[in-house]
Amino acid sequence: MHPLPDSRPRCWVTVNGVTDVVIIGAGIAGLAAAGEFLDQGRSVVVLEARDRVGGRILTRDHGGIGIDLGAQWLSPGNESMFYLAEQAGVQLIGPSEGSVLVRTDGVVRSLGFSDQGAALSPFETADFGQGVVRLRRLAERVHTDPTWASANEVWLSQPLGRWIRTNLRTPGVQRNFSVLLGRLGGDPDALSLRQALDIIASSNDLEDLYTVSGGLRLRRPIGGMGQIAEHLADRCWENIRLSTRVTGIEYDPQSATAICDDGQRFEANRVLLAMPPWLALNLDFNPPLPAWRTEMLAAQTVGASIKAVLVYDTPWWREHGASGQMSADDGAVRFTFDISDPNGPGVITGSFDDDEAVASSALTPQERENIFVDCLVGVLGPRATGHSGYLEHDWYADEFTAGAHSPHFAPGAWRVQGPQLGEPLGAVRFAGAEYPDRNNGYLEGAYRSGIEQAQAIIRSLA
Questions:
Q1: I need a labelling partner for 117 at 20 to 30 A (CA). Which of 27, 68, 361, 391 fits?
Q2: What is the pLDDT of residues 40-94, one digit of tens each?
Q3: Whole-number Å distance between alpha carbons of 162 and 135
Q4: Which residue, 307, 305, 284, 306, is CA-closest to 294?
Q5: Residues 6 or more apart in contact with residue 123 via CB below 8 angstroms
């Protein structure tokens, strides 16, 4: 992502010194909203604390290739993002073909790509996601509420296969779910639900394992997701101020003012806060945030993630029919993807997540590099030590994200809190990946949220 050159002219279109809208944050939501305002002839200023646009999209140049250290994948149902990629002239590709390596209990197994069966439709994908959520919640309850587990011992002893057929609606998902769980613990009809929950509680994440198997038909941009962010920014570069950190907001029902750390004040009829919601706690609101909103924001649990990338001269793992995708039930990095561009060097990405990210954040980059290499050696063999480059970004330590680079919330998790947090606060509105009920936690959700909030603001100013 390139910064806005200082020599580039900026156009502040205001009426009596007051801008129609000030947007705080130049991620996908903020950029989408800015374009919408400009299309409707509204004046807008975008204030971004970073020296780049994109937010949790971060593409770094490494030897002439773009490597994503943030959000990277698009999945079925991301119609807006696919359209933007087409507009930007960006080519999308899927995960590399070949076998997927799975390490469980120290044993590495090779799973053929065709083992996964047919790719799922968007409806089946949603059904699969609901099944994962239900099992995860059950696994957590069994291990945190022994009284409940004891009272439901008979129900928990049912065959896992029966639970799958009862709780999943589509035959394709039932079949794929059975195959997936069978890889973790054996025949679902010979495994009890309780046994499966014990495995899930101590094993790698189901979503990660299924994703690396290619079943969700993911796509990524050749050259990096940053191209899409820059495509959006091209519509409004003259209205963007980078390296401009907002520290406070004064507001009433009719207007709002964004106050920066250098004392600059940007007055507007409306302010759109397009930044991770938990970071709003760092802003000085006048009047103060309502107690319920502060408590709700403070109660949110934000994941931690350090995305890491190893670069090799060639994607040598393909010589042996491997896809470069792996999943493991232990180790600091538990899944990887091959994100090599066609005819480019070999590139493998993985991440330190949650507790591993928190612990690893205190280490040096060299130490994290060594850990990542060791994790790959345990699956791909000693040739994994022959890398020529290492890149990483610690999203947990990033003060303008302070959490996971692409937090995912389970379907329905924000059904109650999301709409409340998304309600306007006087002349202040909120947009971002965490607010919409649909595509929550994804780039698609961020884009749609930005557009929807922009349209709502335009209506309120009419």
A1: 68
A2: 999 999 999 999 999 999 999 999 999 999 999 887 778 999 999 999 999 999 8
A3: 13
A4: 284
A5: 170
Q: Where are the alpha helices (DSSP H) in 273-334?
A: 291-299
**Residue 431 gets which letter from DSSP?**
-
Token readout for 175 is 């079949």
* Amino acid in the structure at residue 26: A
Range name among 104-118, 132-146, 179-193, 332-346 with the lowest pLDDT average: 104-118
Of 208 and 154, the one with more pLDDT: 154
Say what the pLDDT of residue 168 is: 81
Cβ pair 27, 49 in contact under 8 A: no
Among the listed ranges 6-20, 34-48, 292-306, 322-336, which one has the minimum average pLDDT value? 6-20
The DSSP bridge partners found for residue 258 are 249, 266
Judge contact between 305 and 405, C-beta under 8 A. yes
> Which tokens is 115 given?
């083992």
Pairwise CA distance, residues 110 & 120, whole Å: 22
Query: Domains along the chain?
Result: 19-55+227-301+408-461 (3.50.50.60), 59-97+305-394 (3.90.660.10), 120-212 (1.10.405.10)
Strand partners, 110: 101
Helix axis angle, 193-202 relative to 171-185, nearest 10°?
A: 70
Higher pLDDT, 186 or 412: 186
pTM of the complete model: 0.79
